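Revision sheet: structure tokens.
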Amino acid sequence: MEIIPAILEKNEEDFINAVAFLPPEVKFVHVDVLEDDVWAPIERDFEAHLMVEDPEEIFDIWKERGAKRIIAHKILPKTEGMEVGLGLEMHIPITDEVFGADFVHLMSIAKIGEQGHPLDERIFDRIREVKERFPGKIISVDGGINISNYEKLIEAGADRLVVGSGFKELWTLQMKK
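Predicted:
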């Protein structure tokens, strides 16, 4: 089980500060990528979530920046030495397209590209559906995760939790265990 902080910033300075304020024990981060390119080199491993119209156009840029995983909302070519995930929004059906990805990244909020939205309860059935139809496929869940729902997501079968606004509180709780 991985708990991964999500970084979604509007400018380079805020991006650098957001990474700097993470606890030193956090070795891996999730970088949300919108149409504006907000980036500064970081000293941690990361995955890039390409929430853009044409992820193919920036795939190589993020690969060169050192992304260990790339997530797009369409199938991208598998790449040696990097995991490529398929991002699925809540309204997108789970199809056999999942077979073409190294992992599936299920959005658990209705509106992507912003933090602070509540978890959509339909995510639990979606996790179970992926587990049933694609045994062994890694499931990453992103959006609305906090201390009140993370255990239920793990019980449903999530392997990775990408946490934005609820990260600090969840991380603190995990460090006490």
